[in-house]
Amino acid sequence: xxxxxxxxxxxxxxxxxxxxxxxxxxxxxxxxxxxxxxxxxxxxxxxxxxxxxxxxxxxxxxxxxxxxxxxxxxxxxxxxxxxxxxxxxxxxxxxxxxxxxxxxxxxxxxxxxxxxxxxxxxxxxxxxx
DNA sequence: GTTATGACCGGTT
DNA sequence: CAACCGGCCATAA
Length: 129
Known about the structure:
Strand order of the largest sheet: 1-2
Radius of gyration: 14 Å
Number of strands: 2
Largest sheet: 2 strands, parallel
């Protein structure tokens, strides 16, 4: 069994991973949306940092995260096609490396997000610590 | 402490 | 459209 040990990660990482795990099949989120939904607006860059450093370790649907332009951010020589294939496999249309956010962007209610993140520690910005 | 690094973003050119 | 720029933020070293 794959016990997901996210407990020893930073609150930001825990929340990021948990939310991404909840993206429904056939839907996507942008890096900045992930950041915003977990209460860390502006941390889009760090969301990508977390993914690149520990995606496989958590069995994540990492392929459902793309950039704000609706494009795949992975380099062509490093995972781009893997991601494209995973997206196509769940009926998400990728055309010229681009996905129509108006069709596939996941828009959970704040209530739903709250439920998903319940129990996790809050992320407190560095400035406020 | 400081510096370097990202699967980023928004606005501008 | 695409390319560039400056800003953004938490980590790793």
